[in-house]
Amino acid sequence: MAISETGADAGIDTVYRSDCPSRPILDQIADKWSMMVMAVLDKPTRFNEIKRRLEGVTQRVLTQTLRRLERNGMIVRRVLPTSPVGVEYSLTPLGESLREPFGRLYDWTVNNADEIRAHQMDYDQRVQS
After folding, report:
1. Quick check: keyword Transcription in the entry (predicted)?
2. What pTM did the predictor assign?
3. CA–CA separation, 105 vs 26, rounded Å?
């Protein structure tokens, strides 16, 4: 439920408007790669380690995802004083606050994956007929 500047009840439909400020934020943090990156950041982690853990992500997409998460305050990027220079990423307190809801969504997905796949197969058979 959204709350507007004019009161709790007046803004209930604000979230459905195209100019709702939550939309771009939700788009950016709730995409597949952002959720997966945040899931693997249980400790400060270097770029290549994140890439190794996320099978299928390209370097370009991972870089864009990390920049977007950093811009939104979900992660912090730290340059390491090594040679060659290394970079590691970690969750901020704001990003850490998403671990529980993301974890629940992930658990729900795993727990319901078989049922969802069965519905998909049933649908696909009906549509193809």
Report:
1. yes
2. 0.76
3. 14
